Amino acid sequence: MEFIERSYAREGDEVVKTVLTNYSYLLEAGALFLNLRPKWRRFSLFQIILYFTTMVYFIIILAITTVRLADDTSAASQSGHFAALAVIVICILITYTLKRDKLVDLMTIVGNDYYQYSDSFKSAKLEKWKKNLQKMKLIVIIVIPIYFTVVISLILVIGPWVDELQGYKPDFVNGVYMKVPIPMWFPYPIENYTVHLLTLITELIGAYVLSTAIVGADLVLIFQSQEVNFQMRVLRDSLTHIEERAAELYQQRFKQSDSVNKNSKNYTEVLNFCIKENVKHHKTICRRIGTQLFSLMVVILETVNILLICYIGQQMTYGVSLGLYEINWMEYSRKVNTSILIMKEYLKKDMVLKAGGISAVKLEMFTVIINTAYSYFNLLLASSRDKSV
After folding, report:
1. 303 with 370: CB under 8 angstroms?
2. Number of Cβ within a 10 Å radius of residue 323
3. Is the whole model's pTM more than 0.70, yes or no?
4. Between 19 and 326, where is the model more confident?
């Protein structure tokens, strides 16, 4: 309970409001952001225990199913795939539970618009970009759950229906029950309709836990990366208008309404201060990109899902280095140029999302996955042809 109290103490109403505004109740549904308010704690504890127990249960029976269906490469690979997804969900649940403080920190920064410039920088494009970002979030938060619902429906409803159309299918194959959407071995006899119905409900619960956890983790990844893209745009825009910012701040500080003397010591100090503001903004962005997200392990085979996330990961940098180069650095003093060089060197570090801390999330990763999947299915096809000969 001490861990729960400590986690709850870090949160405020603003954090909860930010989570609900950005993700609705999807993170709570996936047990990624448990409701730790006193009256909900027992339910949240029951939820996380149920999710863990369900996934461990399915990992065990899917592993046994894979072994029992070893002679059927296609069926065995399907069982292995779902077992791998269940392992990923456990990794997601453990990560988001133990690293909850990082998620709270992220939501706090998102709720505070990442970084507020002390020089009162305002961009004419800022509101437009922010509206586009909110519109994108609204579309994604509607489309992603629908997409996963369709996929799960195809697996649980259409798949068995197609199997029935293809002809007779036995109830059991080597102890594996075949009359459910995902054939599995179960540790109890299934001899009547009531037990069959309970078994079907168990599979539906497993599918719900699997889909809500992965959907929630995907949404955090997508929204976080889009927030970073948005902030990189703001950073570049502030660099592009650094002279206007410096001139406005110069006039505010020194109360001079006439033209700004760009060769004066005061102007140099103000310009250097504006650059330092950009450095602070960039450091804030870099700290957020370091969060490890386990929603994108390489074993996820949903092609559209992977393509979307790899594309987002590819777009992480928005030409900030170019924006820094475009300012009139030739006219600045050595002190200002030193600050620019320091920031330029720091910008050379690639901003890369990682899949479980292992693989870089970009389009090269997508091509590797597609090539691997193509080779694997060719192997399955060749194996099935050999058996039919």
Report:
1. yes
2. 21
3. no
4. 19
